[in-house]
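User: I want to check something. If I give you two sequences, will you return the structure for each one separately, not as a complex?

Assistant: Yes, each is folded on its own. Here is the first sequence with its structure:
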Amino acid sequence: MDRVAAVEAVPAAPGVPGVEAKAAVPSTIRIVIGVKIYPLYNDNFAMLVLYYQNSAAANPVRIISCGTNHLNRSNAIPIVRSISPAGYAAPYGYEGVMPPEPPVNLDLPNPLNLLNPCNDYNIPLYQLQIPTGELFNGTPLPQVFPAFFTVDLYKIQRRLLEFLLDEEDDEDDEQDDEDDEEDDEEDEEMEEEEVEDEQDDDEDDQEEEDLNEDVDDEDY
């Protein structure tokens, strides 16, 4: 997790183009946690957590699918496999929620028949353990501190699902408001047309009265 710094190009001799040099500078960032959220579909969504640690021999240290749905086989899984360290979590290159495989599991808490569903608190597979020392830049800590800081990924999943559902409701409300506005505009147009029709009828009636008066005058 070193960061790459570009060094200004310096000419080797007058009139000779300089060559840009790059140097790896040790990073002070100890850990990085990335969360990929896939679109909501039928009130379910796929979610991927990537955990990077500066002191690790290979990164990401963990790649965990922990949504309420599995990753898409045709696009998401090949991309994840391409960034997965060699030999990590075969066959797909990640841990956690997997696409359903026969035999079908009809367990109600797992309606999508997922393998390894992330559907409860404190499931060992979905506990992300971060060395506490990494949170304090590697500084040795008193023994009263726990060795690891644990993140339950199910808690994150729940909060994200709540957010996505609220966002979807807001979009539905906005759409309903737009539909109501369109209906109001249509009603106004219909009222205007009715007023115009009434005006036309009044004009026709007036023309008919005028015509009748002209006929009566001629009779006299």
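And separately, the second sequence with its own structure:
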Amino acid sequence: MALVLIPIPFAMWAVDIMRILPTSMKQEKYYIIAIDYMIKWVEAKPLSAITEEAAKKYFLEQIILRFEILKVCVSETSRNSWGNKFRKFLHHFGVQQKFISVAHPQGNEAVKEANKIIFQGIKERLSEAKERCADKLPWVLWAYQMALKSSTGEIPFRLAYGTYALISVEVCLESYRTKVFKVKANDFGMRANIDLLE
């Protein structure tokens, strides 16, 4: 009998740093982006400078404290090698740091694809106010999390939370889900789902 390992979401993240379109009003020129290998969940944050402290703060707040199970961090060897402090920081949390060669770009293809989509989304949302591109990042990320991914055949939000998100249009225009919503029935359903997981 062969042992079958069940993949763990949020355990392996690819990370990259990209230059944002124009510099924002807060002097943010870059953004750090991480994508989960399993469900394609993306986290990104604008940065004014690429430093080990900024990378540590990002990983602590956006990945480790939110998802708790980061085991592997993958980045290109030519970039994102923030140094010894960052390596020690990851090691402190039991995270293994892996590097991919630039000569083998297919290793970080998910990050490159997410970067392309985020970059395009920011461009589309800008008209005259180009210095506000960093402000548009949360909206672009939200759209990315709600879109069907061909690689998984599913929406990242649903894979992460086990349900479809209630979008603002449903609240404003009252969808079937909002019309029939009852607090007690919702609580019962949530408890039933938790029991099934256990």
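Because they were folded independently, the notes below concern the second chain alone. The CA atoms of residues 30 and 82 lie 15 Å apart. The first helix runs from residue 52 to 67.
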